[in-house]
Amino acid sequence: MQRFTTNKRSEVISEKQYDTTENQNLLWLANQMEVAEGMYNEPVSIQIKGNLNQKRLKKSLQYIVEKHEALQVNFVPTSNGLKQVKRDQLNIEMDFYDVSVYPLPEKTQILDTFLESILHKRFDLTSDILYRFQLYRLATDEYLLHMVFYHIIFDGWSLGLFLQDLEQSYSLHESFETTNYKNIHVYKELLQKHQNYIGTNDYIISEKYWEEKLRDALPWSAFPAKQKGKLVPSYRMDAFQRIINPVFINLVKQYAKKNQVSSYRVWLGIYLILLHQMTNQTDLTVEIPINIRSRDNKEQHVFGYFVNAVPLCIQLTTDETFSEFVQKTNSAVQEILVHQNYPLHHLVYNPAQKKEVTNNSLCSTAFNMVKLPSFKLGGLETKLLTHQKRVSNLDMVWRLVQTQEDVVNLEIDFNSSKYDVADIQNLMDRFQCLLQLLLQNSEIPLQNLDFLLPEEKIIYQNVNDTELLLPSYHSIQERFYKQVQRKPEAIAISTGDNKYTYQEINQRSNQVARHLLQSGIQKQERVAIFLERSVESIIAMLGVLKAGGTYVPIDVKYPSERIQYMLQDSQAKVMITNRERQQEVDCYQRHTITIEDVFTSVSGQDIPNQNRVEDAAYMIYTSGSTGNPKGTLLKHEGVLNLVEWRSRTFQITENDIVSQFYSHSFDSSVSEIFSALLTGARLHLLNEEQRFSAQAYCKAISMNRITITDVATAFFNQLATELSDAQLQQLRPLRVLSMGGEAASAASIRNWQLKLKDTVLLVNEYGPTETTVSSLYYPISKQVPNDSTHVPIGKPIANTNIYILNEHLQMCPIGVIGELYIESIGTAIGYHNQPERTAQSFVSHPFSTEPSARLYRTGDLVRLSQEGYVEYMGRRDRQVKIRGYRIELEEIEERLLQHPSIQQAVVMVYQNEKEQPQLLAFYKAIANKNRST
């Protein structure tokens, strides 16, 4: 704890000098280094209607100041520490402003300006009167009494005392001067009592208790924010309030009485379950303020700052009932009350403890219930307005204010850089629905309750309204045949100066199929394709499909160990390659077919369809957590659905030219190839330079008049940030540019939109290999806001449903982060030869009555927006804990990307020399930016 040094003006020796409590010492320090003006200013307003006697009001306020010693002091550092010194002059000032002459809009603006200025006006604790009174005349018989107290001499309990005294003194205006000051000097005694507590046996016991509680960092329980907040912390608060339905108030009372707990602890239990519901955390922390006056009647009447804000830490288990959780909450509060007097900052700000406190607070949110006495001023009509605190070091403060027996107001102060009014209204709606649900089902385990609001269920239903009747094709090749029959001489594939018609591609793929059948390939057997990305590779794919087989593309650039593993794991008996690669593949001991020999040795006549829609069409290898890639088997049906959706959504016709960008061992190539060949469009293969050079890519788009292109998101970022306006103009033939593979950069998209406006439809596509390339998409038709750091992944494609679930497979509310599960016509058959991994990733559908229904578990963390768009938030396996704090690495990366000089950023966890986890950030600066910034 910092000690206070002598100040030239501060050495005061007087009988009027009082000790300070440890909490007052802390507020003194906060005042000296206050980062946000007015953070500890406490505003209160009283609306008054009637014939107000201003002199009587001022006299009443004078009486209150003279009665309560806390309102008579300043704070002065001395050689003996911080002291409170009573002022000699106690005459109050009550500023008067008449705004009744102004029209309503102007009057409101003037009033807001006045209230804002007094709220943020700093108090000099050494010399200022630590309260301010202002009276505003709003109309002939309408007034607003506005007051601001500095927190160091005022708390919520003091407000109740103030209102009682104001009512009594104003009503008994003829006799209140003779009222006996019953609590004179009790303030000083109470201060001394708390100072004497330091170092006692009770203090030591409580210190050990809190030391154990705070040994590890507390879980940071924060309501999900729609906005990430600014790089520079903002303490600005807004507020929203609502009167709670009296029916609910009575339900809580009845439940509390029946279960022998206080109403406050029932409300607190509901709040904590809401916090769990909105965060999916089971270890919860909330700040609760505790009145540390004893029950002694004298102390109950002491005005001042005698509250201790402490963290309530509680663990929720979803198999417990609401009744069990309320009892647990009750016990947790009772436990804290035993140690309520301990000044927590003795631990928190002790350098030896090495505690790290975000925003100088242990918690993100606070929950409190205040009971205020009924209040009247003579025969005047009055209404208490508990203004929100405009600045706070907390993200959100919940306050239940009970003004009458059955009148409870729910007030929420919230950080306006992270939340908006719609967020708070949603929380209030949810709180009231949760209240009713829990009280009516108090003996049912929490995990068995449906927490979704009715309107949220409608949003999910609308999002999943994706049913599309597909044309009655049985296989990919059957739809391809249809295009051949329609326009056999149309160009199917082009590359460089070479062009191939649909008839040519059909005949050559027929030759491959016949050769495979003659080689003894059986239906659904896997055939490896070991060819460069080429026309021949695509012909080989179609040939395998026509033979009824399943093609397995293998990139010729893979290491030999990986190739060997894929061949063995896939059990591919046949390998299609070319003469150039013949010797290279001999070591793999497979029956090898060279594509050149096929084209000269067998007939090119059509082959009857061999497949059904549920058969496997191809097997793509993706990275595996064990180090070995896993082979994913995808169906014909999934590809047909993907093509039908893309052709309708992007209006693909025979006049379109579709680029082929991706390696054929990557599943996005499936979308490119078949979106063209199954719709009658032309597929143009980009060469290697055009795939990796942004400049060469732009020239290729321009020269070949390409209208639809798919690229990796990282490549799009190059296009958007590294090319000149003139180079980007070469992309004007494009109608659609779809990106995918990683989270889209909002900054790159804004840069693109600035240069190319809306001439090209940008689409952010998302989809795991396991659900056939694409599952969700987001057409970026609007300007991306400057404060956005990410772009939604959108809504599900045709015949695809999405579920955002918590760890208990319950649907997550709107805005709450959960894991994305996908139900789709394109869901994979599974992982080849890996039944355990298949069972882990393809789980039983918890919301379907069909026994065979499955969901694919993506491992991606997402949330659903109010507009029905899915927002990608990171990987489940990229959640890390550093010193007890749960951290999303993607969120740190997003914050780094807000810096104007940073183009790309990656954050990783590594072990330092002490084997402790630390974060390490890598970034790429934007060219020509001042690196010193």
From TrEMBL:
Condensation domain: residues covered: 15-457
Keyword ATP-binding: yes
Sample GO molecular function, one term: catalytic activity
Keywords (A to Z) from UniProt: ATP-binding, Nucleotide-binding
Pfam families: AMP-binding, Condensation
Cellular component GO terms, alphabetical: cytoplasm
Domain of life: Bacteria
SUPFAM superfamilies per UniProt: Acetyl-CoA synthetase-like, CoA-dependent acyltransferases
Ranges annotated as spanning the membrane: none
NCBIfam families from the UniProt entry: AA-adenyl-dom
PANTHER family: FATTY ACID SYNTHASE, NONRIBOSOMAL PEPTIDE SYNTHETASE
Family the entry assigns: Belongs to the ATP-dependent AMP-binding enzyme family.
Protein name: Non-ribosomal peptide synthetase
Organism field: Bacillus thuringiensis
Record lineage: Bacteria, Bacillati, Bacillota, Bacilli, Bacillales
